[in-house]
Amino acid sequence: MGGIVWLASYPKSGNTWTRAFLHEYIHGSEKENYNINEMNVLSISDNGLVWYEEVLKKPVKECTHEEIAKARPLVHQLIHDKTDGFIFLKTHNAFVVNQGIPLHTPSLTAGGVYIVRNPLDVVSSFADHMGLTVDEAITAMAKPGNASDTSEKAVFQIMGSWSEHVYSWTKRPNPSLFFMRYEDMLNEPKAVFGDLVQFLHLPLEPDRLADAISRTSFDNLRKMETEKGFKERSPHSERFFREGKAGQWKFELTLNQVKRIIHDHGEQMDRFGYLKEAEMFLRNPSAMRRQQAS
User: 116, 121, 229, 277: most buried by Cβ count inside 10 Å?
Assistant: First the structure.
């Protein structure tokens, strides 16, 4: 496989975990001590300023929205041309067109990996990462066409609402797109990550797979962040690797907040198997909290 492989997700859905695993699986045997801050050897963000400024020949802060949009495919070409084989590009952009220009250049794309996570769990992590209250995060995740501004570190991203994002990537079956649920990554890591390795046409080696999964477990990633720091941590949050669990929403959200998220995203939640449990929770929250705790 050669070209760009997109690692796509709505923010705080498991993208960084996936990148960590791939870096460890591919490069882990080369080093004894894994460093999460070296992931950009294999995977980089599609909105990093350095690439855009190389193409635009001026600081991004001096560029218009239109100039950045037009530079995007040239940035993808630059990254592609500087890479032997395939390169993983992390993206939180929805699979949409901006000013007539695709946010993910088709002619340079070899494939993609899409990670989805229950929005009921996403919202607390998203709030912490963005420096928002949970209610503000619920509103942001429901906002059609939601986009971030260009900052001192990155150009703007167009995420859309949570529902728009996941639907844009998954509305049509595509053999070149591998799909993973965050919850399955937690519960069945060998099966899910093993399938990912095979999708990428990498050699599937059971011992290597088990070692990469172990090294990049949430507990180990959290420990590494404590010891070495993590340069992708948001200035709004105390740490990047916050909980790494499924179902914490049952303790973190109020009933009204759960109802709001179901109202905003029920159709897409149903597609991915999240709606039924949420509706059961509303009928008997105490019982489901006890079940989760056990």
Answer: 116
Would you state the structure tokens that stand for residue 43, as one six-digit string?
């995977």
CA dist., res. 21 & res. 180, Å (int): 14
Question: What is this structure's pTM?
Answer: 0.89
Burial readout 243-263 (b: 16 or more C-beta within 10 A, e: otherwise): ebebbbbbebbeeebbebbbe
Tokens of residue 97, six digits: 């067109």
Residue 271 identity (one-letter amino acid): R
Residue keyed to tokens 């998220």:
261
Q: Are 113 and 177 in contact (CB under 8 A)?
A: yes
- d(C-alpha 17, C-alpha 62), whole Å: 34
Give counts: helices (H), strands (E), the chain: 14, 7
Number of Cβ atoms within 10 Å of the Cβ of 288: 17
Q: How many C-beta atoms surround the C-beta of residue 179 within 10 A?
A: 18
Please write the tens of the pLDDT for every residue from 157-211. Answer: 999 999 999 999 999 888 999 999 999 999 999 999 999 999 999 999 999 999 9
Nearest in space to 47 (alpha carbons), one of 103, 117, 86, 5: 103
Report the alpha-carbon distance of residue 285 to residue 49 in Å, rounded.
45
Specify the DSSP element, H or E, that contains 105: none
Tell me which residue of 54, 277, 37 sits closest to 181, measured CA to CA: 277
Collect all residues with Cβ–Cβ distance below 8 Å to 33 and sequence separation of at least 6.
none
